[in-house]
Amino acid sequence: MKKLLVVITVFVLSLNVFAAVNADVESPFIKVAEEAGPAVVSIEAKGKQSMGIDPYFEDFFRRFFGEIPQQNREFQSLGTGFIFDEEGYIITNYHVVENASNINVTMTNDNSFEAKYIGGDSDLDLAILKIETDRKLPTVELGDSDNLKIGQWAIAIGNPLGFSHTITTGVVSAFNRKIQKPDGSGYYVDLIQTDAAINPGNSGGPLLDIHGRVIGINTVIVNPTQGVNLGFAIPINLAKRFAYSLIEDGSFQRAYLGVYYGDVNESLQKALGLKVSKGAYINDVVDGSAADKAGIKAGDVITKVGNNDIEDGAELASVLRTYKAGEEVTITVNRNGEKLELNVVLGKAEDVAKETSESYFGLKVRNLQNSDYNKLDLSKDIKGIVIEEVTNQNYIYGVKAGDVISQIAINGNYHNISNVEDWEEIASSIEKNSYVALIIHRQNIRYVVKFFYK
């Protein structure tokens, strides 16, 4: 009996000792949540998307009914963002606000604001919003994603599945991850991988370090329905370049390399005797381009851009889209078995591809280039112009960056669009109160998008 009492006494004393360990120490995550949390906002985007009719039935409807029927489907998108500037600028994902005509932002104190869409990029999946208020707004500090280390703490704050301001923790699991886009149009590249739980609704929210600084923007989830907890975030340094360029210059000037390329595959490797089995094969180089000035030659195989390995042409295009014109990057090529590292100062896309100086119907467009056929998965017989950016989402529903406009119909009259000059001439001459339809191509599928020009 005495032995039993001794054991119980020792056990009780042990519990008291354990309870006293770190009694006055708080989790560092509490401080991160308190400091960064107020600047994280929930985003509700609403709008309509135009759904075109199947092309096979288009002639039938035009012949018997005179007009091509379309449906405008209302949608609502929920996501997350964060205030990074006291003037009210907010970063989020492009897919959260894509095609939205109304964007509402709600803060932790339940204050709600209608947000203005400043600009976005579907390839980078980044968008900038702005809210107007006389009140002092909380902000979150932007960190440096170039100095991350695998294994360091990662804290995600967002609104998963509609549950506001949820905090999850994990670590930075890996860098330079590549994920194919849902529509198959390319890749998200140079992503940060984390095991901090990220779910639908977290999109656009911050991934923070242990000091409460933003290191990434939560964007992609892999197989969320299968219990796999893999989340990916856009590095904050890329987002900073995009955001400040958009705010200060009004646009994000895309980098341009100036090469025509294809994929390295087994048959090409054997036919040409290439010394590498993957990469982007350079068919030709544009005279006077950044590639030409750096010494890249036809027949080279690009295997690496910066820290990103290049497996095919689509990945080369995706990686280049993350750079701003004027940036310097090291490009690794294989030339007849010799590995060369070339320093390239990237140029501007409009150096060779003219863009419209004026935005018609909220669309900024440019000439279609040879490299676009591979990048946009287009048939070589398609001619037209590429939508570079949707600058005003309130005008036309159903179009997005990367769509190719081949024709425009005005009150029943069709006009082919072969280049920017055609577009400017026709778009500038459209009279008010006209019925207009754009014939666009997206991954070799033909769509019709109509609107009434007031």
TrEMBL record:
GO molecular function list: serine-type endopeptidase activity
Protein name as annotated: Do family serine endopeptidase
Pfam families found in the cross-reference section: PDZ_2 (PF13180), Trypsin_2 (PF13365)
Active site: H95, D125, S203
Domain PDZ stretches: 261-337
Keywords: Hydrolase, Protease, Repeat, Serine protease, Signal
SUPFAM superfamilies in the cross-refs: PDZ domain-like, Trypsin-like serine proteases
Sequence positions that bind substrate: H95, D125, G201, N202, S203
Family: Belongs to the peptidase S1C family.
Entries under InterPro entries matching the protein: Chloro_Bact_Ser_Proteases, PDZ, PDZ_sf, Pept_S1C_Do, Peptidase_S1_PA, Peptidase_S1_PA_chymotrypsin, Peptidase_S1C
Signal peptide from the UniProt entry: 1-19
Source superkingdom: Bacteria
GO BP term, example: proteolysis
PROSITE patterns named among the record's database cross-references: PDZ
